[in-house]
Amino acid sequence: MIIALITFKLPPNLAPADSEKRCLESAPRFRQLPGLIRKNYLYDPATGTGGGSYLWESRAAAEAFYNAAWLERMRATLGNTPTVQYFESPVQVDNVAGTITTA
Predict the structure, then answer these.
(1) Fewer CB within 10 Å: C terminus or N terminus of the chain?
(2) How far is the C-alpha of 12 from the C-alpha of 92, rounded, in Å?
């Protein structure tokens, strides 16, 4: 499995409530997305950084999503270019489900 870590600069002085509202508005778009297992939204008001941590079935699924059209949409929406990092995730611990899973 692959974790994609996406980070970007947020608009200056974005309040926590506004950040949460934006996240909730976009969340339904990630339901039933092919290859996506889980998405966590990220927000750091101290640095003005936002983003997401995504768990994908494969790097191919992640790269299919983070394509040129996605990058252009993000640039147009944010006014800056997001950073995309990929990490192998060979083991996952899920304390809610009480499981340890391997890729």
Answers:
(1) C
(2) 35
